[in-house]
Design brief:
Rossmann fold; 2 domains
């Protein structure tokens, strides 16, 4: 028993999360394989809704209301990763005269949602939107980009369908300094303090090392690259959800979302006008980039 625990700990200690630069052509085979695995995971896993109408009313989700303030009256809005269309009622309640289209890759989440008032929902990948160029005023995504295999393509496709003067709006967890549950942090899901309370001392020690040393060092190196203008959009090819039972928030996240990287990348477009990180706390951020 003791050797089994020790062996598992050594395996964890020696294991490294496998990240690839998702904009590098050489990474495409590994990313396409990951994309197929994630599709199968979502098809076979009950995926809980953490963003509910009630959650919008909570102070912790003030970012949603701030996002709505950046949607101009009368806009044609496209939401990527809309799920069952829950957000449409809340967006319309906090904006004026918008029309709405939502898309999602999950038929299970879209099914039965057509009854939502004013919701046009379609099955589509955010990498290849079934819309013509310059056809919407606002694109928005709420806690989606961190789950995307090709984040740069996700952003480029939104930029393609935005009209002149349009706005790209995005909310995501802020993983620029913190770890994700999808990463191999300790031997199981949970924080070091949670594991100590369960008397999992070795697991807690490994979690402390992973969080404060390994992940902290990797994030610092990434911030240095971002400041140097390198937008690599690193993607985790072995997220924990694929080999560990149970579900916790962001155990299926694969891109450690960083607002500075996203803004820098979008501002490379010649028709990018202005950018604003309109909300940020230690857990999440909201940003807007306008098209000239």
């Amino acid at each position: 028993m003791g050797m089994g625990v020790f062996g598992a700990a050594m395996t964890q200690f020696l294991a490294q999360d496998r990240y690839v630069d998702s904009v590098a052509p050489t990474s495409e085979p590994a990313l396409l394989q990951l994309q197929r695995r994630m599709f199968r995971y979502y098809a076979g896993t009950p995926y809980p809704d953490f963003v509910t109408p009630q959650a919008w009313g909570a102070e912790s989700h003030a970012v949603h209301f701030k996002l709505c303030k950046h949607i101009p009256d009368g806009s044609r809005v496209l939401e990527l990763g809309c799920g069952d269309g829950t957000n449409i009622r809340l967006i319309k309640a906090n904006t004026r005269g918008v029309s709405y289209l939502g898309c999602d890759i999950s038929l299970v989440r879209l099914r039965g949602s057509a009854q939502r008032a004013g919701a046009g929902l379609t099955l589509a990948s955010a990498d290849t939107l079934p819309l013509p160029d310059q056809s919407v005023d606002v694109t928005l995504s709420i806690f989606v980009i961190e789950h995307v295999v090709f984040p740069a393509r996700f952003l480029d496709e939104q930029w393609r369908v935005l009209r002149s003067g349009g706005r790209l709006l995005l909310i995501a967890p802020d993983f620029s300094t913190s770890g994700m549950a999808a990463e191999h942090i300790g031997l199981s899901y949970g924080s070091g303090s949670q594991k100590l309370r369960r008397l999992r001392v070795l697991d807690a020690l490994l979690t402390g090392y992973d969080t404060r040393v390994a992940i902290s060092r990797a994030r610092a190196q990434r911030r240095t690259r971002t400041r140097a203008g390198i937008c690599a959009f690193p993607v985790l090819t072995n997220p924990r959800c694929l080999d560990m039972p149970g579900f916790v928030p962001d155990c299926d996240a694969i891109y450690p979302a960083c607002p500075e990287e996203i803004v820098q990348y979008l501002q490379r477009h010649s028709d990018a006008r202005s950018a604003l990180i309109f909300y940020r706390d230690k857990h999440k951020f909201g940003l807007m980039v306008e098209k000239a």
